[in-house]
Amino acid sequence: MKLFSLENKTAIVTGALGLLGKKHCEALARAGANVVVADLDESGAESFAEILGEKHGGLRIDVTSERSLKIARDKIVTRYGSIDILVNNAAINDMFENPGMAKELSAFENYPLDAFKKSLDVNITGVFLASQVFGTVMAGQESGSIINIASTYGLVGPDQSIYRNECGEQTFYKSPVYPVTKGAVVNFTRFLAAYWGNKGIRVNTLSPGGVENGQNEFFIQNYSAKTLLGRMAGPADYQGALVFLASDASAYMTGANLIVDGGWTAI
């Protein structure tokens, strides 16, 4: 079990206050890492870090701002002395304020350009900048693990039928930008793995499937029927995979995409 230990390692999780972000932080903390809870909500990040324990810290980080990332980098290195693990988790997944407009606005023909650009900025540029700023520290150390969080929709096209209700009515469309950005993350992982392999930095993708989180029952049933395990993921179902990628248990693994989706993409 020592292979999975993260004692004396410092881990940064971006988008850390999201449903999976919190679970990522908890898993890394239990494995022994010093966890930096990074999110736009500074007070929330600090509060959650306190819950994790006194050795952990919360910081406001805007992944689209190089300045914000560099300020955070300097604070982290000053406090902990190193940056060993980066989990690029921050991302936008479309939510429409007016549910009555969700079907119309999510349709490709009507999808807003501003929304497309905003997701590109966070989901791709944010991963690029965070990897550049924090990964450069790792390169100087000649060690580190970067884990980019993608999605099954970075591998396959969305099945729009799962968003149809019991009456067969389309309630929503999975938008074009999420699959576009997550597909880019998968290949950016390969670029970084090849570029920094000689610096002792491992870079891998974790591609999760859908997480049950209070969705409509018709959607849960539709989604579950497409998985080999017959269910959506629980929020904690990715913790083992994350610690595996962060730790020496995956010491000879880089440039890979670890798919944890209940069998969604297997058939």
UniProtKB/TrEMBL annotation:
Pfam families documented for this protein: adh_short_C2 (PF13561)
PROSITE patterns, alphabetized: ADH_SHORT
Molecular function in Gene Ontology: oxidoreductase activity, acting on the CH-OH group of donors, NAD or NADP as acceptor
Keywords per UniProt: Oxidoreductase
InterPro entries: NAD(P)-bd_dom_sf (IPR036291), Sc_DH/Rdtase_CS (IPR020904), SDR_fam (IPR002347)
Keyword Oxidoreductase annotated: yes
PANTHER family: 3-OXOACYL-[ACYL-CARRIER-PROTEIN] REDUCTASE (PTHR42760:SF133), SHORT-CHAIN DEHYDROGENASES/REDUCTASES FAMILY MEMBER (PTHR42760)
Family membership: Belongs to the short-chain dehydrogenases/reductases (SDR) family.
Protein name, per record: Short-chain dehydrogenase
